[in-house]
Structures are given as C-alpha cells and as structure tokens.
Amino acid sequence: MGKAQLIDYLRGELAISNSAIAVALRHGEQDASELPMVLWQYGLVTLEQLNLIFDWIQAQPI
To answer: pTM score, two decimals?
Structure first.
C-alpha cells in the first residue's frame, strides 16, 4: 500500500478534505502508515473513520 493509494481512499471513500490531509502530511512522518494516526490525533477523522482506515489498510495486498 502506497501513500497515494491511501490518500485516494481517504478522499474518495471517507471524503476527507485535501486541507485535512495536507495538515496531517505536514505534521506527520512521511510514512503512509502513520498518516491515519496523525489525522486522528489532530481531530481530522473520527474514531469510526480511523477504524475504517485500518480495516482498509489491512485488506490491501502486500
């Protein structure tokens, strides 16, 4: 799973705004695996959305 795929999922399926994603990218590591936690820590996604993101990540082929 790449960062671009995750960002596409966040925008397309969860309707996370570009500005929220940009904030998380500025304040987080560049590693895509940390992006969901940064979004949650900054209050940019709900706990339910965070769980959906982790489910999606887990379902992705290696």
So the answer is: 0.87
| C-alpha radius of gyration, the chain, whole number | 10
Write out pLDDT tens, residues 16-28.
999 999 999 888 6
CB-neighbour burial class of residue 39 (10 A; exposed 0-12, middle 13-18, buried 19+) = buried
Query: Contact, 45 vs 53, CB < 8 A?
Result: yes
Angle between helices 3-12 and 47-59 (to 10 degrees): 130
Q: Are 25 and 35 in contact (CB under 8 A)?
A: yes
